[in-house]
Amino acid sequence: MGFSGALLSPRLAASPRGATGASQPEIGAQRLSLAKLQAWEALGYGMFLHFGMSTFVGQELPDGKPPASTYNPAKLDVDQWVQIARDAGMKYVVLTAKHVAGHCLWPSRHTDYTVANSGNKTDVVGALVKACERRGVLPGLYYCSWDNHHLFGSLTPRLTKWEKAFTTSLYQDFQTAQVTELLTNYGPIAEMWIDIPGVLGRGYRTYLYEHMAGLQPDCVIMMNSGLSDGSNYNVGYAWPSDLIAIERILPPPAGHLRWRTIEGKRYYLPGEVCDPIGKEWFYVEGDHPRPDGQLLTLLTETRRRGANLLLDVGPNKHGLISDEYRDALMRLRRSAGL
After folding, report:
1. What is the DSSP letter of 7?
2. Domains of the chain, first to last
């Protein structure tokens, strides 16, 4: 399953550039064609699925020490997640395959800290991709470079100041091996989301980007540039990337600036806003959805300002999206006219 040129939106046409004044489409130096990037933009609205060890220990950033058996969703239903996403008008989903805790939602061959040794042994990544195929939703995966369980001599932001955090070549080999599993064992992945890319360093980050692009040339790659409206892109922290992350905030009122000059070259870089339905990324008891009006503004303003919305909805400890979240999403779809 991939992107189609039929998804192109006329309002997202390339801007003209030509020395003679003639109207010529600007192609840009980015890896993916304008047609593919604009097809991704035309998807418009997706679901971020934060689920994993953090759900069970009640901490967004666990220390990586709880045993794998701590993860144990008794009623896990990945198809329910994807069905709700589809019914809410969302076109793609992105699952936290590995977050800060280091616990993996697939049976990786490179560590025993996975679902294979957990209370529930379901390959969640595999189940998600299959559910997406059934429901006509595009699958995406998130992988966090900050890993409190698999250190390999690295200093994560838990162990030092942010600006001093780094990963070793041993950890980087581990990340390459795991990302390779995710991009070779499950078929086409529409979006690959790499969080905390700053700890990787420019050299390895460039290698990883090119490696992922080689494994899945049509995959849109996000190196999360962090908490900002996307106006000032942090090249040293997140480049190279196919997208610009806009986390917990709207794009500027004038709209997301797609064309950027980076190191002397022009690139077309779509924006993606990510924000939770409530206050927390992972499910926390009592974290209710925001008021309907706030969610409607988040969706409509994000789209009006030229970015996609990746709205986070965390499944609970049972492995289900709660009725409260589902109902809020359905009201949002009706209000937005999706």
Report:
1. G
2. 34-336 (3.20.20.80)
* Residue 294 and residue 332 in contact, taking contact as beta carbons nearer than 8 Å: no
pLDDT band, very low/low/confident/very high, at 10 (cuts 50, 70, 90)? very low
**Which amino acid belongs to residue 89?**
G
Q: Which strand (E) or helix (H) includes residue 273?
A: strand 271-276
Structure tokens at 86: 């589809």
Residue type, 70: T
Torsion angle of alpha carbons 231, 196, 90, 37, nearest 10°?
A: 60
DSSP character at residue 291: P
Calpha distance 56→24 (Å, rounded): 54
Does residue 240 have a cis bond before it (omega within 30 degrees)?
yes
pTM of the complete model: 0.93
Give the length of the chain.
338
Q: What percent of the chain has pLDDT over 90?
A: 91
Dist. CA 156–CA 148, nearest whole Å? 7
